Amino acid sequence: MTVFDKALDGFRFVDILFDDTLQAIAARELGTAARWAELIAFNKLVPPYIADARSAGVLAYGDQILVPAPTAVISSTADPTRVFETDIELRKGKLVIDDGDFGVVSGLANLNQSIRHRLETDRGELPFHTEYGSLVRRLIGAINGPTAALLAAQYASSALLTDPRIASIVSAQAEVVGDVINVRIECQPVAGKPVELTIAV
């Protein structure tokens, strides 16, 4: 089932601001610009989608656009695979191919992969997800010492707390070894046991 085949369970109308794009509306109202194609489907839009004047299949600035309502929250008794979701598997930044198709990772393994990606991605690196990532790599080239170690632990903690699947940070420690800062962090996900991982900066 593609996004265009999904039934519209709930919706709301929001105003289109001057100079808005579908990506900007999706980022503001749906939490990610990547969902802009859903707005096309729900509103039966055609290019250029939004313009100065309304026409068939094109909305104008100041009009209202139909936006999908938030989805229901998964209960805490749900299957951990659903709570931690499924994603494409990456190893050392490369796609994994499994029997001619993309490999996938689910449940706790996906959470581990997601945490590592969030920490290794510079905040602001992804244009449509400006809050995604961490500030840990800003310490590259800084003088290694106790201050850099404390900052690395704090940057890692604050980055992980932006993931809705992380309930709290149990501990965050950093150790300076020569030119490298090893950050060891233990976090409590919304379901299951604490997860621990180490990254090197």
Briefly, what is this?
The protein has 201 residues and is α+β, with helices and mostly antiparallel strands. The chain has helices spanning 22-30, 36-43, 80-83, 107-120, 146-160; strands at 11-15, 50-51, 59-60, 64-68, 86-88, 90-91, 94-95, 97-98, 101-102, 104-106, 166-177, 180-189, 195-200. The chain has a three-stranded antiparallel sheet. A two-stranded antiparallel sheet has the order 1-4. It has a two-stranded parallel ribbon with strand order 2-3.
Descriptive report:
- This protein is α+β, with helices and mostly antiparallel strands and 201 residues long.
- The protein has two domains: 3-68, Membrane-bound Lytic Murein Transglycosylase D, Chain A (Roll), CATH 3.10.350; 80-200, Nuclear Transport Factor 2, Chain: A, CATH 3.10.450.
- Helices cover 25% and strands 28% of the residues.
- It has five helices and 13 strands.
- The chain has helices spanning 22-30, 36-43, 80-83, 107-120, 146-160; strands spanning 11-15, 50-51, 59-60, 64-68, 86-88, 90-91, 94-95, 97-98, 101-102, 104-106, 166-177, 180-189, 195-200.
- The protein has a three-stranded antiparallel β-sheet. The protein has a two-stranded antiparallel sheet with strand order 1-4.
- A hairpin with a 2-residue loop joins β11 (166-177) and β12 (180-189).
- α1 packs across α2 (36-43).
- It is elongated, with a radius of gyration of 21 Å.
